[in-house]
Amino acid sequence: MKTHQLIHSGQCLYACNVCQKTFIKKSDMKKHQLVHSGQRSYACNFCKKTFSLKGNMKTHQLIHSGQRSYACNDCKKTFSLKCYLKRHQRIHSGQRPYACNVCKKTFSQKSNMKSHQLIHSGQRPYACNVCKKTFIRKSHMKSHQLIHSGQRPYACNVCKKTFTRKCDMKSHQLIHSGQRPYACDVCKKTFSQKSYLKRHQRIHGG
């Protein structure tokens, strides 16, 4: 009960000595520290992906089961976990409960806020093992490494052009859809790609 009451007080007694993330329970802090140790003792039975925590492995395995028991009331999109649904619903509500303590920019996800804060600290903790380029997010580093491998796992379903990153493929597909979501704030001309807009804006900037 005493431990539970700390949830309401907001008091976190235990801090990770690597990333300073705080925890109410010492056991939770110890489990978290496995992330930094590199120890990944739990493997998915389906794809052999490994995890430092058993709970994370169990959560991951729901992807393979196809079980998506939680549905969004607004758009009917379904999710394997309730926490994923809650996070998704902030898109519809506009809720951004996490604020950067430096610039006050707000975020719908805590992980995005944590990654953003690294901009202020200058930390880039993830390094490519080939070219040593550093990144704020592990996912960005993983995407970058595909450049060295030559893998282009994402293919446009219209023209079959392939891409190393899913976001690049999604951006490319706007060409086929006719969508032009990026608008110049000076002349209102629209573009399908953000990079095209940036290039265009140089005209106005001289």
What would you say this structure looks like, in words?
The chain contains 8 helices and 14 strands. By secondary structure, it is of the alpha+beta class. It folds into 3 domains: 2-64, Double Stranded RNA Binding Domain (2-Layer Sandwich); 70-121, Double Stranded RNA Binding Domain; 126-177, Classic Zinc Finger (Double Stranded RNA Binding Domain, 2-Layer Sandwich). The strands form 7 sheets. The protein has a two-stranded antiparallel ribbon with strand order 1-2. Strands 3-4 form a two-stranded antiparallel ribbon. Strand 7 (98-99) and strand 8 (106-107) form a beta hairpin. It is globular and about 60 Å long. It starts with a helix and ends with a helix. The model has no long low-confidence stretch (mean pLDDT 85).
Keywords:
206 residues; alpha+beta; Double Stranded RNA Binding Domain; 3 domains; two-stranded antiparallel ribbon; two-stranded antiparallel sheet
SSE arrangement:
Elements: H1 2-9, E1 14-15, E2 22-23, H2 26-37, E3 42-43, E4 50-51, H3 54-65, E5 70-71, E6 78-79, H4 82-93, E7 98-99, E8 106-107, H5 110-121, E9 126-127, E10 134-135, H6 138-149, E11 154-155, E12 162-163, H7 166-177, E13 182-183, E14 190-191, H8 194-205
Antiparallel strand pairs: 1-2, 3-4, 5-6, 7-8, 9-10, 11-12, 13-14
